[in-house]
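Can anyone check this?
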Amino acid sequence: MNELYTVTEIRQIEQAALAALPTGTLMQRAGAAAAQLALELPGTVAAQRILVLAGPGNNGGDALDVAARLAHGGIDVSVALFAVAGTRPQDARDALSRAQSSQATFIEPAEPAAMAVLQASHWDLVIDGLLGIGLARPIGGVMRAMVEFVNALDCPVLALDVPSGLDADTGDIVGPGGIAVRASHTITFIADKPGLHTCHGRDHAGRVSVAPLDIDATLFPAAQAHLNGPAMFACALQPRPHNSHKGSFGDVAVLGGAHGMQGAPLLAARAALYGGAGRIFACFIDEAPGFDPVQPELMCRHAGDFDFAHATVVAGPGAGGGRRAAELLAGVIALAAPVVLDADGLNLVAADAALQQRLAARAGPALLTPHPLEAARLLAVSVGVVQADRLAAARQLAARFQAVVVLKGSGSVIARPDGMAAINPNGNPALATAGTGDVLAGLCGALLAQGMPAWEAALAAVWLHGHAADRLVEAGIGPIGLTAGELIPAIRAARNTFTDC
């Protein structure tokens, strides 16, 4: 599995490794790995020009080591050097000496004339070594101007460890009014970091590769976060025996459909059908249609007349905020049946302290699928607070409600009450459209109904949902204009690729 480590954990691993290695070893290993990747990027050949940005710390030292290696290899390298040598750590000073003894050209970015020459030049690759994982305040001054310049270029940008200005733990841009390098590729050292894969991370980190720097595996603690992928859930997707029937795969009941919002429960119910549940009931708070003309296999019911005790319940799609919706939701939460709370189901819980207490105390499995605004309501904070640390928000919700939580968004975060978390790496902007959350909720319900534990069901549902969107975009369907309904058969196709763990 792909482990993710926080900055604090990375520093502890690094210090333990440095204690057993000669001075400068890790920086030279990082430089060698980054130089090799730079040479492997499309279009990077000896005849072309590379601009290396070297900041004042160890990240800048990594960049200087890369510059020295590339220049010694005959590549045309220019180094924009920030801060004076005396302020650098010893490893970085040694790397500076190696770069200065090479054929690399040094540029003083604080000098207007030098900056003008730099901006007028053609660059085939930029290597970002301005600031590493320890940035605590927004980038300003000449360095900010450099980031703005780099972000306007159309050439590849390779970030070292983390794109400068991006918080490696959270994926947020550091500081109010901050800025971050928008890299096409990131090579991150020692271990992968969560901030590269959620919030602004996917827009700024580009394609991420990990260089472990040959550090002894025994120095790594057990990870509390991972990148989601089939290895985390495939064994829970059991192949179907021949001797089975529709009752073998569980019932899903979707509770929702207040006046004017009947489409949401139908989307969730269709997703549950295509996700493999045996029988699916669409239970409407308002008047129930006689049947679904798109999927007549669904059974439409009036919610007030339905017994939810023997089904996995997906509560909330299009439920509205009325009293009847709250009463029905309270009844569902009181049951021991597995429940998925989405959309208005979450908003109703956020508005009622008693419902919150009942949800946290219930015996049956619970899976919550909030988007950032719904998460903010549940936590009684702003959306900005949620997005500033998505892992922390998801973990807090999971612990508070004793549930598995999917905090949706770019790099959806899946968390469980014990603090274990995963970040989903697939999906694309095609999912930013009405109804895709209803589809995800229905798929979660289908997997729960088939007997998957809540944690694995959430991991699988989020991954299949994102994978389906990626395959559709690859086929030319989206990202602009892709509809939630189009996801459903693509999810079925993705699910059927798993026949054994």
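Reply from J.R.: I decoded it. The radius of gyration is 26 Å.
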